[in-house]
Amino acid sequence: MTTDSVKKPSVLFVCVHNAGRSQMAAAFLTTLSRGSIEVRSAGSQPADKVNPAAVEAMAELGIDMSAEIPKVLTTEAVKESDVVITMGCGDECPYFPGKRYEDWVLKDPAGQGVDAVRPIRDDIKARIEKLITSLTPAAK
Questions:
Q1: CA distances in angstroms from 84 to 75, 77, 93, 123, listed in the order given
Q2: How many other β-carbons are positioned within 10 Å of the β-carbon of residue 9?
Q3: Is 73 noted as a catalytic residue in this protein?
Q4: Which is catalytic among the residues 11, 15, 25, 128?
Q5: 50-107 residue pLDDT tens
Q6: Is residue 2 over pLDDT 60?
Q7: Which one in 119, 122, 123, 140 has a CA-CA gap of 20 to 30 Å to 61?
Q8: Residue 22 belongs to what H/E stretch?
């Protein structure tokens, strides 16, 4: 079996506005997994743009989120994902049996400056590192 025939695990990050937490998580997972995991993010009520403080906080670590656009949560995105990680969207997230669900309790960076966003960013990064290990055990 070649690596091309092995399906990559897929992760969907969901928060209300898809402008801060879920965008940072998706950017970290995309960067740190080096393409070994399919990444999606969405919001139950997407904002018009990504939180500038989140963009700045990620840029400090060399990750560019400036071109990202908040996306609306769809049933299809949930169906196509192996793992669904919610961040404060509560009952607005659709549930499908057979998916791995996690709810990450994180402060909302909306309306916060970069100083308040940095600890949220760092918390997300630590969670992403554990997530990668759980999804790609051979990469340890």
A1: 12, 9, 9, 18
A2: 19
A3: no
A4: 15
A5: 999 999 999 999 999 999 999 999 999 999 999 999 997 666 667 788 899 999 999 9
A6: no
A7: 140
A8: helix 21-32
